[in-house]
Specification:
Largest sheet: 4 strands, mixed
Low-confidence stretches: 257-261
Order of helices and strands: HEHHEHEHHEHEEEHEHHEHHHH
Shape: globular
Strand order of the largest sheet: 6-7-8-9
Mean pLDDT: 75
Helix content: 25-40%
Length: 325
């Protein structure tokens, strides 16, 4: 089993924002690859593999079902489980669907300075080296097309103690990382409210466990604080110029930051104009312009360097174009 297959086998769910082909065209290939990797892992571990959960608009689910059946799959039940965004929140099987996401466990990433052989670990240490990465998931309806949604996903972050093999201490507060993906949308008050509010009742497993504990103790459960967004991935198809703004309104998009085929290159200056001569970030928050193939660790330190990274990408692409490469 290759490292890439091992990564694919750990994929728990796939989330699609809306039913435009550039967002889901290759989804059948991706789902088949994930299912194949999960089956291979099941043969190795002798454990049954679970189908990947696909949360997507109804049109996308029909497309996925038809293409997988035409590819020769006799049944899609062991390949994926498909639900719409609304079914994930409100359906007779919503609790089971959310459990597929929130009960998913991954190995705790090892601490860089940790060097402990597997044979030296106790059974308790091995059992505590897994964590549940997903704390809450919210589908927020946005203005773009029928069944268009944004995603607010709260992730659990393993503590330093867990990564060092010590498990979770009772006095240690869990750390979280909140990701907001806007999808294609007009500027959305609904999404702003979704980012500033608490997860709806029943969608945050940590809050449910806390409520059960308080009921046993006879106390009123305190309201959990709203999560603070750590990273906003904002899709926007048009540049922030008169022509781009007109097209953005007409086609229910936003301006800036999304790499579209209609533009060969988007730079920092396209977003904010000419930055200060000293190269400092002109905004009081970390930000950057995405580029094809960009991979970043989801750490606050890495994200705080986004602006500098975008300037470096600008310099490299400008140099390549001037050299004709």
């Amino acid at each position: 089993m290759t490292d890439f297959d091992a990564q694919l086998s750990s994929v728990n769910f796939v989330w699609i924002s809306h039913a435009h082909l550039d967002h889901y065209g290759d989804l059948p290939i991706v789902v088949q690859a994930i299912a194949s990797a999960k089956r291979e892992l099941g043969r190795i571990t002798r454990r049954p593999s679970k189908p990947v959960l696909v949360v997507a608009p109804s049109k996308v689910l029909k497309y996925l079902d038809v293409l997988l059946r035409r590819s020769g799959s006799s049944t899609n039940d062991d390949v994926y489980a498909g639900v719409t965004h609304r079914e994930f929140r409100q359906s007779p099987f919503a609790g089971h669907l959310r459990a597929l996401v929130f009960d998913h466990a991954l190995p705790v990433p090892p601490h860089p300075r940790r060097d402990v052989r597997q044979s030296d670990k106790t059974e308790r240490e091995i059992a505590t080296e897994y964590y549940r990465p997903f704390a809450s998931l919210r589908n927020v309806e946005v203005e773009h097309c029928r069944e268009a949604f944004a995603l607010v996903l709260e992730l659990n972050v393993p503590s330093e103690n867990e990564r060092s093999g010590g498990g979770t201490r009772s006095d240690e507060r869990p750390s979280s990382f909140v990701l907001c993906f806007s999808g294609d949308t007009r500027p959305s008050d609904n999404l702003i409210r979704g980012c500033l509010s608490r997860p709806p009742d029943g969608t945050d497993p940590r809050a449910r466990r806390q409520n059960r504990h308080c009921r046993r103790q006879g106390d009123a459960p305190p309201p959990p604080p709203p999560p603070r967004v750590s990273l906003l991935i904002h899709e926007a198809t048009f540049l922030d110029d008169p022509h781009g703004r007109t097209d953005a309104v007409k086609k229910r998009h936003s301006t800036v930051t999304h790499f579209s085929q209609r533009y060969r290159r988007v730079s920092v200056e396209d977003v904010v104009g000419r930055p200060p001569d000293d190269g400092r970030n002109p905004h009081p928050f970390g930000w950057g312009v995405a580029s094809d193939g960009m991979m970043l660790p989801l750490t606050r330190r890495a994200l705080s360097k986004l602006f500098g990274l975008s300037r470096c990408v600008d310099a490299l692409t400008t140099s390549s174009r001037s050299e004709g490469t």
